[in-house]
Each structure stands twice: as structure tokens, then as C-alpha cells.
Structures
1.
Amino acid sequence: MENLRTDPRKPAFEGDAILASDDVIDLISEDHKPLKKLLEILKDDSLERSEREASLEEFVPLLLQHAKAEQESLYTKMKSYEHLRMHAFAGETEHAMAEELVQKLNATPDDDEWKAKLKVLAEAVEHHIREEEDEILPEVGREIDQMTRKEIGDEYQALKGDYSLLLQKPHVGPEWEPVIE
Ligand SMILES: [Fe+2]
Ligand SMILES: [Fe+2]
């Protein structure tokens, strides 16, 4: 009998690459990728402020859209699980600190002070993402069943749509004010 999985003409998992998962763990991990790439540029001390501002302009809206959607979907759900509650509150606090740092950055005319603040912001976000990927999301996988994770994933996607307004606003410069709380 022909076994399609071992047929050399057909890839074993044909189509897998284009079938996006709707599990919130996968959606969040995927959205961390561009943020991590931009963080590499933001952390690079050899680059001047003007060179990094373009990446920051890309980074901030992506970060805020992701963080707000993640917080209102996943973190909110995590609060009803005993083992996840503390992680949710800690994550929320870290999101708020990052947003505050972005605002401080925008109100900093001195280039060296700006670079120092950017470094703190980039390292804090990098640490936050690493902790989510290494500890929190695996624990979410153990505590929350797959069906519920998919429901949270749908909610996360819808919230990202709601917060897409953030993507249209300038985020770098002293005149920036967060448009959505
Ligand atoms: Fe987060
Ligand atoms: Fe995240």
C-alpha cells in the first residue's frame, strides 16, 4: 500500500509551513520574532541615535500592540489559574514599566542620556521576552488546555486588530502621547 508520508515526491508535512497555528502560545512566540530582531539594533551602542530612531519607530508600536493584546487576553485569563496569577501581575507591571520608559525616552534631548535610557529599555524588554518564552509560555502550555489556548489566541488576534491604530501613529519624539490606555 502506498504511504504518502514516505513518498519521496511529497514533503512529509506539506502545507505545514503556511498553516498558522491559532494557539496563543504560537501566536505570541511568532510576534516576539520581529521585536527580538529590532532589539539587536536598539542595543547596538556603536550606532548613533539617528540610526536607531528608525528602528525604535518600528519597535514601539509593535511592542505596544503586542503587549496590550497579550495582557488583555492571555494575562487576564492567567489570573484565574493559581499557578499563573503571579506571572500575569508581574508581566503587566513590566509592560507598564516599558511603556513609561518609552515616554521618558521621548522626553530626553541629551543624546548620551537617550542612549542610556534606550539600553535600559531594550534590556528590560529582552529579559521580559526571554522569561515569557523560557518559563511562562511553557507553564501556560501545562496549565491551560489547548482548546482554551485557541480561544485566547482568537481573542489575542482580535485585540491586535483593535490596537492596530497604534501602528499608524508616530511614536518617537517629544510630542508623542500614548493614544490608548
Ligand atoms: Fe509580555
Ligand atoms: Fe510577549
2.
Amino acid sequence: MKLYQNIVVLIVIFAFCGDVGNLINSVWTGQEMRSQNSGLLLPGAHAIWGHVAKLVAKTLVRSVSRTGKKITKNKRPRIKGTHEDEQSRKQKDQDRANENTCEPGWLKYKGSCYFFSKNSNTWINAERECRQKSSNLVKIESASENIWIKRQAEVTHDQRWIGAREVHGQWEWVSDLSPLTFTSWAVNEPNNAKENCAHIHKVISYNWNDIKCSKRFNFICEKSTVSLKERIK
Ligand SMILES: [Ca+2]
Ligand SMILES: [Ca+2]
């Protein structure tokens, strides 16, 4: 039986036996009943009912007190923002896992990772080294990529191989054999049918020049970025 039903039953009992007012007062204040009133139907029985009422009053006070504690416990306010913070933290972890990254030693620019070699090699062996690193000699496809490459080259070596080569009179990128669309040849370059590989050179402001493939230069490899999740696999 629920608490309020208990209270109603007790009130009915005490209505007959008296002490309703004192019962309420006792429940409310937690003090013992002081009444000397007799019950309505059992006049003179107040001595017995007084003890019973005292006991019931104490029990009710304890019960109400416990219920109050429960309510307080259940209604404890949630710390604002905790759930949102947790969601936000999970989202950040997810974003970090999906974020495209480059391995240590590689530089990231837009969707690519670039490796600026510290050693020199012939063009074909430079490409071979790039392939060993799951990449190819750089394919420069836009003015912005070209500018970024120039800036990196300026702080390292004066000359570097890039991925363009001439095959049967046609220039192509070694990574996908596609023809050159964007170019940044230096003035009057490419100028020699016997120079079939392209490099960038400080004296021509890091623009492109065709030169013999057997020369040895440092080089630039390029590959797509991968998500951290993919790298961990
Ligand atoms: Ca590129
Ligand atoms: Ca040339």
C-alpha cells in the first residue's frame, strides 16, 4: 500500500479514536503526541491510543523522512554539460581517427604527403626509392601546389627531381602516366630532346627544367594522405 493510502487509513482510525490534530502535528513536527483527547467511538481509550499514536507518528515521520531522501536522491540535478562534453569528446576522438595524416618525416599539403629526400639519386632510382615508400616522384598539378613545393625546396636543396618525364616527345607524370596539364617551365624550357627528366632549380626560381635523367639530385616523393585509422590497421 502506498504511503498516502496508509496516511488516509490512519486518519480514519484516529478520527474515531481522537487525536487527529495531534497526529498531524506529530507527523509534521516529529514530536511525540501530547493529546489527552478521547476517541470519538472509544471514549476513555486515549491512554492506549496515545501510545499507539505515538508509535505510528514516529514511524510515519521516519517514513516521510526516508521518502524525502529518496526523492532528493532521484531528483539530484545532473551536472549540466556532462553528457554534451562526453559526446563532444567522442566526436573529437572520431575526427582525430578520421583525420588525414602523414607519416613522420613527410609533410602534409592538402590531400598529399610529401617526402623531401636528404640523399641524391638518378631520376629512375629516385622514382624507385619513392615507390619503396609507397609513393611516386611528385606530380605537380596546380599553381598552389607548385608554390608550396617551391617554398619547401627553398629551405632545403637547390635542385630536386620532380615526376615529369618525356616519352616519345610527350611529357607525362610518372605516377599515373597522365600528360602535364599545369606546367611551370622556366623560360625557354624544355629545350632539349635529349633531356628527358624534369627538375626544379634555384637559379631559375625553382621553375622546371628538362635535364639528363642520369644526373643525381635530391628528389620529392608524393602520396595521398591516409586516415590515422587506416594507418593503424
Ligand atoms: Ca600533386
Ligand atoms: Ca633543359
3.
Amino acid sequence: MKRFWEKVDIRGEDECWLWKASKRAGYGAFKLNGEVVSAHRLAYSLVFGDPANWVCHRCDVRACCNPAHLFDGTRSDNMKDAFDKGRLGHFGGSKRSSFASSATGFKGVYVERGKYVARVWLEGKNVFIGYFEKAEEAADKFDAYVEEKNIGPSNKEIGLR
Ligand SMILES: [Zn+2]
């Protein structure tokens, strides 16, 4: 797949890797065995294996082929889980490097700009709940949010709170 990666402007892992060849509707287009496939989808498959359904961009840049910016839309829960566990903690670079919740010990609670922030994955999007002075407070707000939207499990449910 050297031919494929040659068409990608490979940069740092936190940057967008733009597709340099032809595009369709803003998405990179690559010819594979005579068939035109989406470059970002192929980039995802090469790194993570075939996606179950569509491949989405965390960065909202259609031409981006950085595997760290891509996720299977049907497996967003798994990605969220990996993200929470810090396995994808490098994603987003310095600005988001504090995302791993291991820093606070609570699910959905991260440290940003010296404050605690509660965030949740909802329908493939990272939703900001708010900034808080205390991690416990952020965890409670996170729990209230996931309970309201019925998208748990909350910190209470997994015994963290
Ligand atoms: Zn990107």
C-alpha cells in the first residue's frame, strides 16, 4: 500500500494528513483494483481492519487520512472506550493530551487548563458538559447527563462514584 500512503501528506500524529491526489465531494478518492474507494476509509482499514460501516472524521476534515482522526461510526462506543482508557490519548495532540480520564479517576472527567472538564461521547460527537473546580462535581454532572440521555454507564454504575 505504498502507492496509497504516497498520496497522503503524512505529518505528526496529531495533525491532519491531507490527501494529495484526486477528491470526490471533498473526500480523497483512490483507485483500488479498478474501483474508486474513499481514501480515508482505506486508511482506516489499513490500520484498524475493515470498518463495520462508515468511517467518520473526528477532525471534520474530509480529505484527512490520519488514522488517529478516523473512527468507525458504528463502533463509536469502542472508540470512546479506548479514548477513555487513554489508549488513544495522543489523539488531538497537546491541546487534548490531557483527555485520558486516568488523570482524574472518573469516567468522562478530564483535566483541561487547570480545571476539571466533563465530556461525553454522544452519537459520535464529543459533547462538552462544563468546567468544574472539583473532579467529583464534574463526575456528578457527567453522571446526570448520561442518565438523562440514557447513554450510561455513569460513574455510579461502574462504582467510581
Ligand atoms: Zn484530521
